[in-house]
Design goal:
Elements: E1 14-18, E2 23-27, E3 31-34, E4 43-48, E5 55-58, H1 60-71, H2 78-86, H3 94-100, H4 134-138, H5 144-159, H6 166-190, E6 193-197, E7 199-201, E8 207-209, E9 211-213, E10 220-222, E11 224-228, H7 232-241, H8 253-263, E12 265-267, E13 273-276, H9 277-303, H10 306-314
Antiparallel strand pairs: 1-2, 1-5, 3-4, 4-5, 6-11, 7-8, 9-10, 12-13
Helix pairs in contact: 6-7
Protein name: C2H2-type domain-containing protein
């Protein structure tokens, strides 16, 4: 086990972060000042950025590492280290392995699947909005964001748990809706039809526009070709594949009529309608009539009961 680092003296090499140009670099500090507020390592470091020359301070993640090293605990004697090693005997169990098999999702940069997404800063379309440090990304074996997306999707399908994909699908659906809105705005601004002059190439290789002269007035008219807006087709595909058509949203007359017809019919579960509302009312009336007959029969048997008749005679009349 490595010995605990001595943080009582200034460091010879420090990781710096330049805020103006966002450059991260390791270098020997140009200036070392006392910092009583940091009890674990009371020193403040400064160095000039090799890219822009601006003074840079110690990187926040390096300060966190120094604090973690200062607060680190563990066995120091040989007996304590041996006892810690014995605690690992028999572990992980099959149940523990099942629970911890996705721990690498937090650190999946070394996973085999990460080889599909090599790290290339500003080389992917998503790099424009990525907040990962470019120097950090350049030193990784794979793209951080692409690997996270791959591992989350892989875990969702392996566990058969779609809840892991809900944030991704929500963002994707929101993006598609935004694209549809932009297509609609473009079509409305340009018009559903586009007119372009008809043209052809003559034998001499010149471009000739299609024109004709009105014999009655002598005016020269240009022949125009009318075409539907090219964005109408992708708009239709977006709407149909995302269940955004009028029929899917229940807005066509036929669908509305079918829904109104279903309001007067009873259904059992998700199956087809089994009984209309009129049939159900007739069935209820028959049941009530049969129930009335049964009540009259029960009342007649009660009045003819010998015990009840004797009780009524002894009490001077019946109820």
């Amino acid at each position: 086990m490595a010995t605990k680092r001595d943080l009582s003296s200034p460091l010879d090499s420090v990781s710096f972060r330049c805020n103006p140009c966002r450059h991260t670099f390791d270098a020997e500090p140009d200036a070392v000042e006392d910092d009583p507020s940091a009890t674990h390592h009371p020193y403040r470091y400064t160095a000039a950025c090799p890219q822009c020359g601006q003074p840079s301070g110690q990187a926040p993640y390096h300060k966190g590492l120094l604090k973690a090293w200062a607060n680190a605990t563990g066995p120091k004697t040989a007996e304590g280290k041996a006892a810690t090693a014995r605690n690992l005997d028999g572990h992980p169990t099959p149940e523990e392995a099942k629970r911890t098999r996705f721990n690498a999702m937090k650190h999946g940069m070394n996973a085999e699947t990460a080889q599909y997404f090599p790290a290339k800063p500003d080389g992917y379309p998503t790099c424009a909005s990525c907040d990962v440090d470019r120097d950090y990304c350049r030193n990784q074996p794979a793209c951080v964001r692409q690997t996270q997306l791959f591992m989350v999707t892989h875990a969702a399908f392996e566990q058969r748990n779609p809840k892991h994909l809900m944030p991704i699908m929500a963002s994707m659906q929101a993006s598609i809706t935004a694209i549809i809105q932009q297509i609609l705005q473009t079509i409305i601004a340009d018009g559903v039809k586009l007119e372009t002059p008809a043209w052809a190439i003559s034998r001499e290789g010149d471009v000739v526009l299609g024109e004709y002269r009105d014999l009655a007035t002598g005016d020269l008219h240009r022949i125009m070709e009318v075409k539907a807006h090219p964005l109408l087709k992708p708009l239709q595909e977006f709407l149909s594949r995302n269940n955004l058509s009028l029929a899917d949203m229940g807005m066509t007359p036929r669908v509305i009529e079918q829904e109104e017809q279903k309001l007067g019919r009873l259904q059992q579960g998700d199956g087809p309608p089994t009984m209309s509302l009129e049939d159900y009312a007739a069935k209820q009336a028959e049941s009530m009539a049969a129930l009335r007959v049964l009540a009259e029969r029960a009342n007649a048997r009660k009045q003819a009961d010998p015990v009840l008749v004797e009780y009524q005679q002894q009490n001077g009349g019946g109820q």
